[in-house]
């Protein structure tokens, strides 16, 4: 029972974790991309469509990653090359993604999806209590954990990570040192897009293997909130994602138990929890000030 | 080939006026490509999208019905966006306005007096404003990111509405369909010209709101504060303007207008409250606000254009069998082109060939 609950929490947490990890890298480079929801839903529809037509969930995953990265290029071109307002452009990306995905996905409504299998290692997966949790989940779960470790290592233990953080904290100085600010930000935005696409593929291939319009249901926005909650630290994103996973699974279990509480109130809990957590974190101004990338959301036009 | 931006010494007046039109032309071109890719004749489809709905009188009324909430919400959003307050939860404020305004005809159906309707409108505005006050207060008091909180409240409002119309407010005689009782005559926003179509007074409210907000922004100290605090909070502080009060002001104004849009839609167009109230006007209004270049008078025109895409989407679905889901993708494209074209106002765009740039650098040495 306990193991089953933890596994469902992991399933709810994984898409949030992956999307938030991508956005964390984007924001560390000084760019605020509010288009996570749009890139995620584009990933979901692409992943579903490709897996459904080819029968291969892995092709679906790769297509979703490619779509997320390609879709984020639209945002990158506008905000980095044409220096448009990042908040407005991110919103535009989300609105366009929701619209386009609805259009693409219309042909796939109601079709049976392809569910990605789970890992099975003889003996290890059969271990009592922890076997299925550690050795028996879907592959994307393992990718999400590796991704967290990889991003933490990259940001704080490599020179490239230091450069990326320098670009996010002071783009003018970084530029003066000869660092290609815009090029680094392009790469960061595309990484964020690829992660959002992967998170979307998880939704459509593991979480609910079918296409439902608007199936991301605000998860992209919750991922954005998680980055703030984690004060731009990878391992705290992981903790936050599992906390939110627990809240959303808890409300599902409460609905199943048939408590005399309206199901809509329970469904609203993850969103209310997001607000509560944001308030708690932002109350502590010093904590947020120290960790916020100083150039977050600011336009950069190189002087020549 | 590389794109390089050269800052203009001052904003280009020419492109300030032209950019929405260039953006719209580019959207039409992109739309034609999109329609062709979907296997439809672009010219015919564009005709049904943008011309056909304008050819009949009843259809113009429908245009006004769709434009009213878009303009009302977007006018309020212009105050928010100009002052750098990113209220993206107008959809939630719209819903709450509709709910609070509906309290009288739903909970007190026996109250049938002339003042019911004005009271409903006021209550709708108050409801929207109070709902917008939540992210505003959290921003002022705790420095909480208003983008995320206002958006989360949209989902909460949608679920709350869903609960009301399926639960306590459901019409007992409604055959189990979600929705309240139909409003009595004193609770219905009247039609402007009942002889020719359904357009209700919400459209007039939208025009009045646009004029008033335009006047406040262009001609009063408050409007000056909005723009100064939006462009340079530091300069605003030196001038003694309170940014906390501005946050409250912007959110309350836009919340009230979104609430008015909500109750006008419920009482004028639908005439009872149901779960389908939220169809994304609050998000489309963001596109309207930017297409109107955050100018209330421009927003009136932009609201009519976006309303036209809704009607055109329906017309194209009926006439050429194009899915109505294309509409939202099309609307998203508009915002992209608008934002891209706004760059022309502040920058000159130069295309630089790599070897030419290298030669230029060499000549400096």
Describe this structure in words.
The complex is a heterodimer of chains A (304) and B (365). Chain A is an all-alpha fold. Chain A has a single domain (2-291), classed as Orthogonal Bundle (ABC transporter involved in vitamin B12 uptake, BtuC). Chain A has helices at residues 2-28, 36-54, 57-81, 86-105, 131-135, 139-157, 159-169, 171-176, 181-207, 219-229, 234-257, 263-283, 285-291. In chain A, helix 6 packs across helix 7 (159-169) and helix 10 (219-229) runs parallel beside helix 12. Chain A is globular, with a radius of gyration of 19 Å. In chain A, 51% of the residues are buried. Chain B has a domain at 64-300. Helix content of chain B is 70%, strand content 3%. Chain B has 15 helices and 2 strands. Chain B has helices at 13-37, 42-50, 57-82, 90-101, 103-107, 116-142, 146-166, 202-219, 221-231, 233-238, 243-270, 281-291, 296-320, 326-346, 354-364; strands spanning 2-7, 347-352. Chain B has a two-stranded antiparallel ribbon. In chain B, helix 2 packs across helix 13 and helix 4 runs antiparallel to helix 6. The radius of gyration of chain B is 23 Å and the shape is globular. At the A-B interface, helix 3, helix 4, helix 10 and helix 12 of A face strand 1, helix 7, helix 12 and helix 14 of B.
């Amino acid at each position: 029972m306990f193991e089953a609950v933890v596994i469902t929490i992991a399933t709810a947490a994984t898409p949030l974790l992956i999307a938030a990890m991508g956005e964390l890298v984007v924001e560390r480079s000084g760019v605020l991309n509010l288009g996570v929801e749009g890139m995620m839903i584009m990933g979901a529809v692409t992943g579903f469509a490709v897996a459904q037509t080819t029968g291969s969930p892995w092709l679906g995953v790769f297509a979703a990653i490619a779509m997320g990265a390609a879709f984020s290029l639209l945002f990158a071109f506008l905000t980095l090359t044409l220096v448009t307002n990042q908040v407005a452009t991110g919103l535009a990306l989300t609105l366009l993604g929701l619209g386009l995905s609805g259009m693409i996905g219309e042909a796939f409504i109601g079709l049976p999806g392809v569910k990605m299998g789970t890992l099975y290692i003889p003996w290890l997966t059969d271990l009592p209590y922890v076997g299925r949790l550690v050795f028996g989940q879907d592959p994307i779960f393992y990718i999400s954990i590796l991704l967290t470790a990889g991003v933490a290592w990259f940001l704080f233990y490599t020179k490239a990570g230091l450069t990326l953080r320098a670009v996010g904290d002071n783009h003018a100085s970084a530029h003066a040192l000869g660092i290609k600010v815009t090029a680094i930000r392009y790469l960061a935005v595309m990484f964020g897009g690829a992660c959002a696409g992967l998170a979307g593929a998880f939704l459509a291939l593991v979480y609910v293997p079918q296409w439902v319009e608007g199936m991301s249901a605000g998860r992209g926005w919750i991922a954005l909130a998680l980055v703030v909650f984690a004060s731009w630290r990878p391992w705290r994103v992981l903790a936050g994602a599992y906390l939110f996973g627990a809240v959303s699974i808890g409300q599902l279990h409460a609905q199943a138990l048939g408590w005399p509480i309206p199901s809509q109130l329970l469904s609203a809990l993850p969103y209310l929890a997001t607000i509560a957590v944001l308030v708690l974190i932002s109350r502590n101004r010093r904590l947020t000030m120290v960790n916020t990338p100083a150039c977050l959301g600011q336009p950069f036009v190189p002087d020549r | 080939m590389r794109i390089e931006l050269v800052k203009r010494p001052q904003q280009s007046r020419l492109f300030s006026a032209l950019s929405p039109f260039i953006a719209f032309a580019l959207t039409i071109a992109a739309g034609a490509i999109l329609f062709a890719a979907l296997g439809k004749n672009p010219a015919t489809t564009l005709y049904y999208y943008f011309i056909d709905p304008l050819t009949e009188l009843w259809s113009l009324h429908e245009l006004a019905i769709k434009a009213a909430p878009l303009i009302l919400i977007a006018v309020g959003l212009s105050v928010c966006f100009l002052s750098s307050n990113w209220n993206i939860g107008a959809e939630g404020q719209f819903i709450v306005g509709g709910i609070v305004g509906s309290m009288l005809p739903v909970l007190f159906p026996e109250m049938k007096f002339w003042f019911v309707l004005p009271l409903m409108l006021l209550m709708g505005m108050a409801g929207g404003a109070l709902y917008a006050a939540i992210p505003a207060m959290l921003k002022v008091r705790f420095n909480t990111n208003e983008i995320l909180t206002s958006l989360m409240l949209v989902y909460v409002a949608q679920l709350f509405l869903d609960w009301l119309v399926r639960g306590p407010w459901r019409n007992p005689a409604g055959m189990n369909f979600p929705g309240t009782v139909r409003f009595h005559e004193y609770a219905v926003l009247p039609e402007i010209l009942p002889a020719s179509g359904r357009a209700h007074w919400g459209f007039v409210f939208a025009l009045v709101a646009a004029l008033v907000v335009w006047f406040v922004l262009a001609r009063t100290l408050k409007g000056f504060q909005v723009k100064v605090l939006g462009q340079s909070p530091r300069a605003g502080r030196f001038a003694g303007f309170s940014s906390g009060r501005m946050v409250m002001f912007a959110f309350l104004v836009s919340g009230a207008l979104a609430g008015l849009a909500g109750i006008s839609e419920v009482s004028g167009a639908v005439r009872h409250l149901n779960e389908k109230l939220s169809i994304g006007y609050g998000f489309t209004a963001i596109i309207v606000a930017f297409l109107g270049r955050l100018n209330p008078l421009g927003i009136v025109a932009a609201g009519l254009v976006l309303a036209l895409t809704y009607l055109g989407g329906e017309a194209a679905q009926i006439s050429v069998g194009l899915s109505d889901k294309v509409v939202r993708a099309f609307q998203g494209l508009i915002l992209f082109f608008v934002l891209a074209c706004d760059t022309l106002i502040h920058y000159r765009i130069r295309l630089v060939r790599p070897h030419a740039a290298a030669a230029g650098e060499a000549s400096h040495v």
